[in-house]
Specification:
Elements lengths: L54 H4 L12 E7 L1 E2 L11 E2 L11 H22 L4 E8 L7 H14 L2 E11 L3 H4 L2 H6 L4 E7 L3 H6 L6 H14 L2 E8 L6 H13 L4 E6 L7 H4 L8 H17 L3 E2 L4 E3 L7 H7 L3 E5 L4 E5 L4 E6 L3 H9 L4 E6 L5 H9 L6 E2 L1 H7 L7 H9 L12 E2 L3 H5 L1 H6 L4
Parallel strand pairs: 1-4, 1-11, 2-3, 4-5, 5-6, 6-7, 7-8
Antiparallel strand pairs: 8-10, 9-10, 12-13, 13-14, 15-16
Helix pairs in contact: 2-3, 2-12, 8-10
This protein binds iron/sulfur cluster (SF4).
The site of iron/sulfur cluster has 11 residues, from loops.
């Protein structure tokens, strides 16, 4: 944790600290404003005594945010039937699941009690702020019984104001017992599913170590269509042994299911996975993977699914994922659960937090009011990279005013890197600051290189 007096000012006790009272909160305004000027603050200012328990968060600091960004809630449910060999998420194989796939009832209840204790302890940091989206991610959240998730969402609603149209997504796997629960999940208040289909080819599903087959995946999508207007299908490509023709069949088969939203991921070998230490045979080389991406882009466009982010495609603007859009627009999020991350903004600071990663340790610590294992204030010099790492993933970018709204810094902090990117043809060569922080099509192809220009 960052000490409260580590911002370089000589006399912390003498500093005037400012409490942000409950501000007017809305989605990003997008109003252009005058470049280089600070928008009027929506935070009300009151002096914070240096010994205030939240002085590290609420006190004076290097930033001047005009108001808090939209707030999302992420809840991590960490167990899976089996650990997939490519997965580097904080997911834990759970032995002793019943044939019905239920987690032991005591474990579900204990974990939810820990989540609620975690939320209770975090409330002072987000007091009064409406939540625009909730994402129940994992792991395999659909291992939890619908009634448990209904109770969890009731507890959230009792503590945080959910926006009237809040998107509430559940990550689900297509196993038989799980898709049998989709109707009950909808009744529990979940209004969007994200289904981990990955492929509709049984050979490739086996190569990925998935526990479901293609028939189960199709049945799960059909069940989702019956109960959810909004759902996402996750699909992977560049799989072991996959040829271009295999991928074409997979993409066509998925598009025939008419998903409102599609997320497409290149299989990567992440550290700390079985695939990293024992790479599977037959992985497509870079040229083939590039041809695969071209094929995906052509066929999704023909099917009316618009690519709005590096990996995300939606049938219409209304069907885009609100939760992920908030990440990419550098919004705030409170992460609850084992290993969850948070990014929280205050009038003069932005903080990041991480929860204990191992589920049992998390539960013990959360019930004792200590769910956070580490936290740091984001240094202003890191904000250009953090902001562009997210914003440039969006195909249309974000309006220039968003930089000052979300970081409390003037656009001048981006000028040097932006001009370098423009010189390489990665962003439009227009007068600075541009109307939109966005790449050119060429810059979108060299996204990592373009983002790295903003490193301190
Ligand atoms: S089901 Fe998902 S979260 Fe679980 S191990 Fe497989 S990839 Fe990871």
């Amino acid at each position: 944790m960052r000490p409260s007096d580590a911002d370089g000012l000589p006399d912390p006790a003498a500093r005037r600290r400012v409490i942000p009272l409950v501000p007017e909160v809305g989605r990003f305004s997008g109003s252009p404003g005058a470049p280089g000027t600070a928008p009027a603050s929506r935070y009300a200012a009151t002096a914070v005594p240096p010994d205030h328990p939240l002085a590290d968060f609420l006190g004076d600091g290097p930033l001047s945010l005009p108001g808090p960004p939209p707030l999302s809630l992420y809840i991590h449910l960490p167990w899976c039937l089996r650990k997939c060999p490519y997965c580097d998420f904080n997911s834990h194989e759970r032995a002793g699941l019943g044939d019905d796939g239920h987690l032991p009832p005591g474990l579900e209840a204990d974990y939810v009690r820990a989540l609620i204790a975690d939320l209770d302890a975090a409330l002072p940091l987000v007091w009064g702020r409406p939540v625009i989206s909730v994402f129940l991610g994992g792991g395999t959240p659909s291992l939890f019984q619908p009634q448990t998730l209904a109770d969890l969402l009731s507890a959230v609603r009792a503590r945080l104001p959910l926006a009237p149209e809040a998107e509430i997504t559940l990550e689900a796997n297509p196993g038989t017992f799980e898709s049998g629960r989709y109707a009950a999940y909808a009744q529990a208040g979940i209004n969007r599913l994200s289904i981990g289909v990955q492929s509709l080819n049984d050979t490739h599903l086996r190569a990925l170590g998935r526990v479901h087959d293609a028939a189960q995946a199709r049945a799960a999508v059909a069940e989702a269509q019956r109960h959810f207007e909004r759902f996402n299908i996750d699909l992977m490509y560049a799989l072991p042994g996959q040829e271009l023709a295999d991928l074409a069949r997979d993409v066509d088969a998925v598009l025939a299911l008419q998903p409102p939203h599609l997320s497409l991921y290149h299989l990567t070998l992440e550290r700390n996975t079985r695939f990293f230490s024992q790479p599977p045979e037959g992985l497509p080389d870079a040229d083939l993977a590039s041809d695969m991406l071209d094929l995906i882009l052509a066929r999704t466009a023909r099917a009316g699914l618009g690519r709005y982010e590096v990996s995300a495609f939606a049938r219409s603007e209304a069907l885009r994922c609100t939760h992920n859009l908030n990440y990419w627009a550098f919004g705030d999020y409170l992460g609850l659960g084992a290993g969850a991350h948070s990014k929280l903004s205050f009038a003069h600071r932005i903080w990041r937090q991480t929860r204990w990663r191992e589920p049992q340790q998390y539960m013990t610590q959360a019930l004792a009011g200590r769910a956070v294992s580490s936290q740091d204030e984001v240094a202003p010099q890191h904000l250009p990279f953090e902001f562009m790492l997210n914003a440039l993933r969006l195909k249309d970018g974000v309006p220039h005013a968003l930089w000052a709204e979300r970081t409390g810094l003037p656009p001048a902090h981006l000028a040097t890197a932006w001009r370098k990117a423009a010189a390489r043809g990665w962003v439009p060569d227009s007068p600075f600051p541009p109307r939109q922080w966005v790449t050119t099509p060429r810059g979108f192809d060299f996204l990592s290189d373009a983002q790295e220009l903003f490193l301190p």
